[in-house]
Design a protein that fits this description.
Layout: H1 2-11, E1 16-18, H2 25-42, H3 48-53, E2 55-57, E3 66-69, H4 75-88, E4 94-97, H5 104-109, E5 117-122, E6 131-136, H6 142-154, E7 158-163, H7 170-186, H8 192-202, H9 209-216, H10 218-232, H11 241-248
Parallel strand pairs: 1-2, 3-4, 4-5, 6-7
Antiparallel strand pairs: 5-6
Helix pairs in contact: 1-2, 7-9, 7-10, 10-11
The structure holds acetoacetyl-coenzyme A (CAA).
Length: 263
Amino acid sequence: MGGGIAQVVAASGRRVSLHDEVPGAVERGVAAMERSLTKLAEKGGPDPAEVLERVTPVDGLVPADLMIEAVVEDAGVKKAIFQAADGILPAEAILASNTSSIPITTLAAATGRPDRVIGMHFFNPVPVLKLVEVIRAVQTSDETTTAIVELAGDLGKVAAEARDFPGFISNRILMPFVNEAAHALMEGVAEPEAIDTIAKLGFAHPMGPLALADLIGLDTCVSIMEVLHEGLGDPKYAPCPLLRQYVQAGRLGRKTGRGFYKY
Ligand code: CAA
């Protein structure tokens, strides 16, 4: 998602520094940006070369007005990044997380500027989907929230504000839907295609819950469900055993070529 976020920020005229610890990840992100920008240019979007010129791959955290962190859904990894960013970005900079479930309040508490820490949660594919879920930690100031809501508007997105409770708004609603679809499959109620067809043609969703889980990543879905389960304490949020089994088998969805479907 980092590449998608970099793309929409650069397309708004801002300069972006892009960093990923994983070897090859920045290159893959830039290649995805090229493909996406080419598609968008055919429909009147900005010149891909001009947008890409504003994106600079960097070797680590660098000073900036805003950081948008989009690493793996692991609270420890995210906390370490927020602590490091607090020492490198100027004191007035805002530190945002694209997390889908990790409490923003704990990330804010890891820094010396908790009022300038916020959740800025984009949706996949970032260049296409219009939503940014803006999550206020307990400590987040009104000024920070206003700045991020305005930025979302500048990126051509619509912000929906949420308080910092497990799963925020989006995943509190989406993950039980995905999980129930996995239970239906596990219990043999229907084949994956039938389950997804119900959602596509019956509820007018662009894709069914199993195909969507493959897009999000089954490991990410399980991580989010664990946060919901632990944070809200209700067994209804426990990840379906079939989802866990697929993750154990390395069937993580599109990114590994196999999840509920083969790619
Ligand atoms: N960049 C630019 N354009 C893109 C693109 C990208 N990355 N991906 C797709 N498009 C364009 C296509 O070119 C196509 O354009 P035209 O209509 O002009 O031809 C259009 O979007 C539709 O794409 P497709 O024809 O390939 O297929 P589609 O109609 O099925 O749309 C989809 C694909 C946009 C992914 C759509 O299926 C969709 O919106 N699915 C639901 C996605 C969703 O729910 N995402 C949220 C996931 S939850 C999350 O991200 C956060 C979390 O916390 C877990």
